[in-house]
Amino acid sequence: MNKIIRLTNHSAIEVGLTGGSDRPTIMLPIAKKSVYNQEAENLKLWGVDPELGKHFVEGLADTFQVLYFDYEGHLFQHPVENLTVDHIVKDFLLIADEMNVKSFSYYGYSWLALIGLQLAIRTNRLESLVMGGFPPYKGPYQEMLIVTHKTHTQALNNQNEAAEKSSIETENPGEIDWDNIKVSMDTRVTAQFVALYESLTAFDDRSIHHLLSLPKLAFAGENDTIVYGDNFGNVTVDIAGILKMNKAKLSDLGWDVELLTGTQMDHTKAMQPAVVLPLIKQWFARQL
């Protein structure tokens, strides 16, 4: 079943619900739409599955009911003027309500993982939580605020220049040079993520774990570390390092923690269905 839902800013998003209604439901806000032809070939160069959303949905729907949508893609098409955590949580609960889903588990990756954490502390509707590519303890919120602010500043500086291809198309996939990437994104898009991390400046993820009385898993690729150059604030976003350093603490707090091994297992590779599905499908099956 697919449905067009009006979100809190009145923009319309397509949401799907598939799998048996008698099964536990998993919310997947990471279900990107499939791309084909040259666009698909470009993504493959980066190790990105051009049918990522489809493969996640199909991979889980034989065992669970899957509530899926592409929230990030929606934000790129319909930028929100003040994208706070509260705004996103309201959107996700509205989607669940409109699809008649009372309770659900959640899987999110990167910034959509931290949204899962925010959902879990704001509502009792979550049955379990999986966070990929963003640690639930001592997360890099300040570093991401710096990176997103620098990204937005560059987009503002470049907005009057001729339209250019995005850096993901023009850089060598083998190694990104963060000193020389040119940001040519829509400034309304980049402003959203500044607002998101600004809304988290007072958030302390060390103090909320008593609110998380549900099964929970955190994972990342063992090489998920990005060292940003001067254009992005000279910060390091060390997802893998934070998760490794706090693994024992997280275990004490009731988290399952997995580090995906492999020399190429960086932020991008560790979000692909072929890698993630075997982990989360088995984990959800044990919890639900």
Automatic annotation (TrEMBL):
<dbReference type="InterPro" id="IPR029058">
    <property type="entry name" value="AB_hydrolase_fold"/>
</dbReference>
<protein>
    <recommendedName>
        <fullName>Alpha/beta hydrolase</fullName>
    </recommendedName>
</protein>
